Amino acid sequence: MHSLVTTPVKIGIRPTIDGRRMGVRESLEAQTMRMAHAVAELLESHIRHHNGDFVQCVIADSTIGGVAEAAACAEKFKRENVGLTITVTPCWCYGSETIDMDPHMPKAIWGFNGTERPGAVYLAAALAGYSQLGLPAFSIYGTEVQEADDSSIPNDVQEKLLRFARAGLTVATLRGKSYLSIGSVSMGIAGSIVNQSFFQEYLGMRNEYVDMSEIKRRLDRHIYDQEEVDLALSWVKQYCQEGIDVNSPEHQRTAEQHAELWETVVKMTIITRDLMVGNPKLASLNYGEEALGHNAIAAGFQGQRHWTDHLPNGDFMEAVLNTTYDWNGVRPPYILATENDSLNAVNMLFGNLLTGQAQIFADVRTYWSKEAVERVTGFRPQSGFIHLINSGSATLDGTGQHTDGQGKSVIKPAWEVTEEDGKRCYEHTRWCPAVHEYFRGGGYSSQYLTKGGMPFTMHRLNLIKGIGPVLQIAEGWSIDLPENVHEILNKRTNETWPTTWFVPRLTGKGAFSDVYSVMANWGANHCVATYGHIGADLITLASMLRIPVCMHNVEEEAIFRPSAWNGFGQDKEGQDYRACANFGPLYK
């Protein structure tokens, strides 16, 4: 598999201790180190990188009783590529002398809830120091008192440790990577007006750019691995089934023209992947520079219209790269956004890095009320719903053809996907000739229907002048419609594209008072749908990056943000805006 060459980020565990010798420190050494090893064991058995590898934890060489040991720990963490830290302690420690001072590293403290030593007192003192220094940190403190010899991690503490680790690992993984724009702005879409300062200051990422003509150059000059092209074309003939052609006869292509289109879109797929992550085989063709790629953890393809009015669209390329299975077998998805919507690409990254799953990129196309559905089809659904549909980057994993062993439809993380799962996704996808009125250069669009009953989180970043980035989140479910109802509704927009019928979970308040309000409050034409209800993880991640959340339907008790947010008033969402504005972007 072709992928970024990168050193895996590790999680640093900092066991802090009361520095007073001659009895105090000595009595706490074993208990403090037990906490550190328990946290490391928990994380190393539950947290994975997006490629499936379990995360590694690095524990300080000794307990940290003062500034010298804190500095020694920081030096070790630099050598070991630690990207986030968790401080653990069962006791009082010297507050500002023992904290992690790296301004860019997400940080949390677990203070043991016990009665023998004041772990909670250190937790409060250290958090106060962090807040005073402008280094927000997360507070982890169990609700129930534990015995001093209890080495277990309570469930509520585990939940916060894992949520912090997932979000913190995402932050650290983004740092130093690239977003690659292939082309520029597509049809005036705001998300494809790439905001370089956002990527640099909020995500710690670089921006890379190539013109779409670079794909044409590589096509014309055969800058690709021909052996892989031959393998891919053979595989496509076996697994990619053509679908309906809705074009008028004068715009339909001959068998020879279709064969040529298939060869081109397959080559585009390989070329775009090589642009992102490189391909060592190109060096043997005397293309050493091209072999390196752009270190892109995500990319976007402008496509419309400067490419698609003349050449095959990027729909096959985008869908296949975003899927966990192709001619090379099962693999993590490559994050590639339709229409170079860089902000949607960031959401795809968030969803992928938090879960390891492939992501559905979609237009937020239509709100259907119960009354409108009944008027058009004669069928009255239980609630209104939103039609999510787009021609390009929706992963084929979105068909819902992965199974959990009990017949339930899921989208698995890449490391759990089997070849059989992947083949079923392609079996339930048709590749329809591109609609000529949209794509004069031809191509193939994926056509499928997402299975109903699957939990999804719909999310989107938007840039607001004067505020910066804001995040929207809507947890809900895909739904099934009667087949004839689906057919009627789907044909009213574009039946050759992938469809997900989505119902958000309503709260009866504000943007979630009804389904219509969710769509009416959505801030852009695109969204990402991630399998599972991951809204709480997204909220934690956003707070680490200083991105306020302007809309969500996550239960308040699940919201986990740095303790410093409590100093910005009592309303949770107002706190978030004020804190993010005060502390500013993570990397500014």
Automatic annotation (TrEMBL):
Catalytic positions are 339, 363
The GO terms describing molecular function are:
arabinose isomerase activity; L-fucose isomerase activity; manganese ion binding
Positions contributing to Mn(2+) binding: 339, 363, 526
Q: Name one Pfam family in it.
A: Fucose_iso_N1
Predominant localisation class: cytoplasm
Q: What SUPFAM superfamilies would the database entry show?
A: FucI/AraA C-terminal domain-like, FucI/AraA N-terminal and middle domains
Q: Which family does it belong to?
A: Belongs to the L-fucose isomerase family.
Name of this protein: L-fucose isomerase
Q: Which organism is it from?
A: Rodentibacter myodis
